[in-house]
Every structure is written in structure tokens, then in C-alpha cells.
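Troubleshooting log. The previous structure file for this entry was overwritten by mistake, so regenerating from the original sequence record. Sequence copied from the archived sheet and checked twice against the printout by T.R.
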Amino acid sequence: VLRQHFGGVETAVDPLIRTLRDPSVDVRANSAWALGRIENGRALKPLTGLFGDDAEKVRLAAVSAVGRMDSTSAVPLLIRVVRQDNSPAVRRVAVWALGNLEAREAVDALSETLAHDADARVREMSAWALGNIEDHRAIPALTAAIRGDTEDRVRETAVWSLGNMGDHSAIDILATATGDRSPNVRGTAAWALGQMDEHGAKAPAGLLRLLRDESADTRLKAAWALGELEDAAALPAIRDALKVETNDDVRRGLIRALMKSGESSQTTLTQLLSSSDPQVREAAVRGIAGARSFDPWPWPWPRPRPFP
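Regenerated output below.
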């Protein structure tokens, strides 16, 4: 739509680049925003020239625009913004840009920012960016954030990042995070453990405890994760949780976990046939028949990740 409005990229880019020097803050900011949507490489250098603009609004728009362009040549300048800009909002968007560009050369800078930036939203975005880049050099910084950051949103995003990376060396810290004071962190830790792709691996004790968590969302994520791990030793805990669970979504997640973990007790399956939930009854029938495929079933993603 934007390209059609300006009559095509070639005719739109040069006029917009010229207006980046307009005396009006709003005109400069909106021109930078528009160039970011067009994503023409000719605008990259003029946009990075605005990284030192006096107006926060202009710097914010220029950094965001560069983050949308498929070019890593601006990465050193974005790192400088992260380290030096006095606006948390601008630093946050610069961090997002580095993560969006999957800039591996920024891992050290992002790790430092995660550890030391005074603004929680900047640290949160740093955790997300490191997870999106998926460079295992970031694991120590993410682990430190999970253990020590005072903000729930930062710890949760660091947990998500480790889950997104899928590194088995992170299992112990993720198991520790199942005991976090925040239900969002606990739930995302359960999801992350399910992301480890360790079929048949032993389910951490902390994950089993989450089947009794006060948060239904956390219990659902724990049930889903246990289904992914397929640990037969978890069957007693799953059966016990199913006896007392009242949330229909969680019950279906528990049944999925039962089946995928190798449930063979006809007594357990037959009892489920009396459920008031037709999806539960259907699952019980399929379980009695020996089926282990239960699609579609709950896929509990973590809370939305941070974007500018």
C-alpha cells in the first residue's frame, strides 16, 4: 500500500531521504518510519545519520527503520546506540533491531545490557534478542538473569530464550525456574522444558510440582511439557493431578500427557469415559483403543514476547 501511495519505491525513496533533514521533528520521524516500511537499501546510510538526532522521537523511528532492513552493515552503529544513548526507549528499540537482524556480533553487547542496563524494559528486550539470535554464548548471561534479575518480565523472557534455543545444558536452570515466585516465569519454564526435545527424558521434579500450581495456565504448560517428554515415570503424578483438576483445558492436556507417556491402565481410561467434557471422553476412547496421537491439543505458548 505504501509503495502504491508513493508511486513505487524508486520515486518514493529520494523525496523521503530529503525530508530526513526537515526542520520539523515530526516530519523527520515520519519520513524515517516510512523508509523503514519501504526497506530500500539506499536509505540505510541517511537513516543511521539520524542516530545522533537531538529528538528522541526521530532517533526512535530511525533505529526502528534500520532494524527492519535486511542488512547487518549498521550493526556496529546499533551497538553504539545500545551502549550510549541516554533514552531507554531508543536503547530498547536498538536492542530489538539487533535481535531482529540476528546479529551474532552483538551477543557480548546484549549480554552486558541484560546484566547492567538500569531499565527493565531494555533488559527484557535484551533477553528476547539473545534468544532470537540463538547463539549459545548467551547462555551464561541468560542464566544469570533468571537467577538474579528483580523484574519478573526479564526473568520470564530469559527463560523463554533458553527454551527457544533448546540447549540441553539449560535444563537444570529451567528446572530451578519452575520454583520462581512469578506464575508467568513458572509457566514459561514448563513450556521451555517441553521445548528441550528430550523424548523419554526424566521429568524434573519441579515440573511435576507445577501440575498443582495455583495458575491454570501454568498447569496447562506443565501438562503439555510432560506430554513432550514422554516420561513413563511421571504417570503417577499425572494420574493424581487428573483426579483433582477442574479446568477442562488442563484436563485435556493431562490426558494428552497420559497417552504420550504410555498410559495403559484401563481403569484410569474407563473412568474418563464418564467426563462431562466430550473431548475428554473422546480422548479416553482413543486411549482405550491404543491411539497416542491427540491433535489438535493444547499448545501453550508463553506470553507475548516484547516488541517495540
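Residues 187 and 218 are 4 Å apart (CA to CA). Archived copy saved in two places this time.
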